[in-house]
Structures are given as C-alpha cells and as structure tokens.
Amino acid sequence: MIKHLLYKYWTRYKKYRFRKENKKLGTFISKESKGYQNVSFEGKNRIPDRCNFSGKISIGFATTLGYNNMLMGDVSVGKYCQIGADVAIHTTNHPINYLSTYINKLLFNGELKTLKTTNKVVVGNDVWIGHNVIIVGNVTIGNGAILAAGSVVTKDVPSYTIVAGTPAKPLKKRFSDKIISQVEELQWWNKTENELKAIKPLFFKNLENLEDLYQ
Length: 215
Ligand SMILES: CC(C)(COP(=O)(O)OP(=O)(O)OC[C@H]1O[C@@H](n2cnc3c(N)ncnc32)[C@H](O)[C@@H]1OP(=O)(O)O)[C@@H](O)C(=O)NCCC(=O)NCCS
Hints:
CATH superfamily of the largest domain: Hexapeptide repeat proteins
Strand content: 25-35%
Low-confidence stretches: none
Helix content: 10-25%
Number of strands: 19
Largest sheet: 5 strands, parallel
Mean pLDDT: 96
Distance between the termini: 70 Å
Number of helices: 4
Strand order of the largest sheet: 2-5-7-12-15
Number of domains: 2
Shape: flat
CATH topology of the largest domain: UDP N-Acetylglucosamine Acyltransferase, domain 1
CATH architecture of the largest domain: 3 Solenoid
Structural class: alpha/beta
Bound molecules: coenzyme A
C-alpha cells in the first residue's frame, strides 16, 4: 500500500518536474496529457489536453499538437508542424503471422508482446496534419506535406505534397518543382528569429501560380 502511494506521488512529482523544465523552454504541456517518460520537446511546443505518448518520441521546435493526439512507438516530428485534433501515429503492430494477435497480459502473462513488430514514423518540418488522421507503419512524411482530414497514411509522402483518403493518395503538389527545391534549400525552419524576420515577405507570397520563389 505504502509502496503504491509512494510510486503514485513519485510519478506525479516527475510529471510536475517535466512540465516545469519544459516550460522554461517555452513549451506548454497540459496536465491532462500523459506518458512523457521517453518524450523530448525541442521548445515552444503546445501539448493540449488528452494527448497520450508511449515510446521514444521527439517533437521539434514550435510544433503544436492537437487535442487527443496519440503518438505510439518510435516517432520523430520535425519543427513548425501543426497537428490537428484526434490524430494517431502508430508505429507498432501486434503479431500478424502467429496463432493470435492477442498480446495482453491476460494470456501467458503478456509474453506474446515480444512478437510485436516496431516501425518508425518520421515527420518532416512544416507538416500540417489534419483532423482525425492516422499514420501507421514505417512511414516518412516529407517537409511541407499536408495530410488531409481523415486520411489513413500508410506510405511515404513526398515533400510539399497533399495526400488524402484511405489509404492516403497524393492529390497534388503544393508548388512547382523549382519552388519545392528552393524551399528545401532555404530550410527556413532552421533559421533564427532574426533570420526569419529578414525573409518574412516570402511567407506572405502566394506561390500557387509562381515558378520561382524569388520572382
Ligand atoms: C486537403 C485540404 C487542405 C484541401 O486541399 P485542396 O487542395 O484545397 O483540396 P480541394 O478542396 O480542392 O479538393 C481536391 C480533391 O480532394 C478531395 N479532398 C479534399 N479533402 C479531402 C479529404 N480530407 N479527404 C478526402 N478527399 C479530400 C476533394 O473532394 C477533391 O476531390 P475531387 O478532385 O474528386 O473533386 C482540406 O480538404 C483538408 O483536409 N484540410 C484539413 C482541415 C483540418 O483538418 N483542419 C483542422 C486541423 S488544424
């Protein structure tokens, strides 16, 4: 009983310390979210209510999560991404080539858990993930991609491409190939605040029918 209570308070204290340390880096973490044991936030992140983490997860600078996000397994998210509500990223699968997919401890004390397979999801920088998107498997999402609301993403998404549907398929590229390579080269997400101020007009340019970022 005492051991249980001590564990409860120790966990609560660790969570408090984690939130406080991250607040120093400008990150807000809701009290209503959980599972930070192996999570790192680069700074200025927003983690609202009901987010659940489990696994080795890194979240890049200024990336904001949505309500009820679930990030499970080996997940890396780049800088300046925006994730909508009810998004799930799952990198693990129950065993599918064995007698049962059941891995709960109610059967063989959970020993079948060792048969789980683990993948990795890598999300680039400046990715917009719409409401209710699910990402599964071994997937890399390129910089500047958009995952349309409700998509189930099972394959890599090239940079600056919009994908939609179940399974998600490319709808279109956001910009011309030339502009895509110019933005990839610019890597604005790695710039300092002052450097960003210097190129601020670029962010207000409608690139839809342009061929050159600097024209
Ligand atoms: C993808 C999105 C950005 C729109 O992009 P767009 O290029 O303007 O797309 P359009 O509206 O011109 O639609 C293009 C096609 O994609 C389809 N489409 C658009 N969004 C879709 C979606 N979420 N799922 C499936 N298909 C979709 C359209 O029906 C259309 O199909 P058609 O060519 O057969 O008529 C938008 O639909 C979306 O999903 N936004 C996310 C909103 C959201 O989740 N916000 C909250 C989080 S911050």
